[in-house]
Amino acid sequence: MKINTLILVTSLSIITILGCGNKDNSDSSEAGIVTSKIINEENNYSISDFEGAGLKKPKPLKADAVDKKTGEAITPKATEVYLGFYKSSFGPKDIEVRFYESHSDAINYGVDTAEETINAVVAFTNALIETTSAESTTSTAGYGAYVVIGNVIMICQGQIEVCEELIDDMK
Prior knowledge:
39% helix, seven-stranded mixed β-sheet, 4 helices
């Protein structure tokens, strides 16, 4: 048992060290898990770039959708929004892809709403965990991270590595 614990601690330490050495702008939660990354590219992407890299069945969503409670835009200044899935090494995962006119628009208008999406999923998941018994199985799969790449914000199901794999497949 001590050997398994040592291997786990060593592996997590290596992952943390490697993650901290990344030159990209990243944000981590309190547990040291990377939840966001900004790749400072001026490339402008389209949905065909993501489909070519393996995004499956992207379904268009309303880019100008409004929150019914607040009346505020859900994805302000987004030009297009798609929801598809990607067969990552973690299994098939949902990825929401939000397109903007430019990288600066993605940063200025999209980051806050991406963080709100992730925070809403975390709050909902925590509420589920608190209200269910230990014997039940609760799905906690939700959007856990996002990446800004060029004119796009990718919101990843589970963890940031899902989006990173899709980005790697775009190269």
